[in-house]
Amino acid sequence: MLLQDLHALQIHILQALPAHYINIQYSRSLLLAGKFDLATAALTRLIYPRSQSQSSPGPNLRPTRKHINAEGPLDIEVASRVVLACSRELFDAAGSTRDRSFANAVRCLEMLPLEKTLKQTKLKEGGNQNGTMK
Q1: How many beta carbons lie within 10 A of that of residue 75, not counting itself?
Q2: How many domains would you assign to the chain?
Q3: What crossing angle do the helices spanning 3-16 and 114-126 adopt, rounded to 10°?
Q4: What is the distance between the alpha carbons of residues 47 and 52, in angstroms, rounded to a whole number?
Q5: Quick one: pLDDT at residue 71?
Q6: 3 state SS for the chain
Q7: pTM for the whole structure
Q8: What does the pLDDT read at residue 103?
Q9: CA distance 81 to 60
Q10: Are the CB atoms for 66 and 87 separated by under 8 Å?
Q11: Are 46 and 18 in contact, with CB atoms under 8 Å apart?
Q12: Residue 83 belongs to what domain range?
């Protein structure tokens, strides 16, 4: 996936999430802290089992496939790849000067094309190899 595509996809997903649930700063913080499981969960609208407290879950609770809302913006595997790519870009950027590193990290975490990601997911499910659906 090209970096521009990753950026566009990130923006699209983060803007699609409800404002009261998550925001761009929260996603940045998770990735900067290396909390990749939580960042992935955030991108897939993690839903915790009702048997647990209705309040926010603790930081040690790990997401699993059964916690994921099937109607969320991304499949868990796609979200995991997005988070991994974001984190790589973020930490690559951290090797440069401070201002540029921050700008690159922000740019990386502010952008994502949901259409393209969904198309790639559908390809795995039955599309042909040139990117069009059957």
Answers
A1: 19
A2: 1
A3: 100
A4: 11
A5: 42
A6: CCHHHHHHHHHHHHHHCCCCCCCHHHHHHHHHCCCHHHHHHHHCCECCCCCCCCCCCCCCCCCCHHHECCCCCCCHHHHHHHHHHHHHHHHHHCCCCHHHHHHHHHHHHHCECHHHHHHHHHHHHHCCCCCCCC
A7: 0.30
A8: 54
A9: 21
A10: no
A11: no
A12: 3-126
Q: What is the pLDDT of residue 90?
A: 61
Q: Consecutive sets of 10 residues in the chain, 134 residues long: mean pLDDT of each?
A: 57 55 57 62 48 41 41 58 66 53 51 44 48 41
Q: 60 lies in a domain?
A: yes
132 found inside a domain: no
- Residues contacting residue 8 through CB under 8 Å, at least 6 positions apart: 111, 112, 113, 116
Task: Give the integer Cα–Cα distance in Å for 105 and 96.
Answer: 11
For 127, the token pair is: 């599309």
The verdict on residue 133 lying in a domain is no
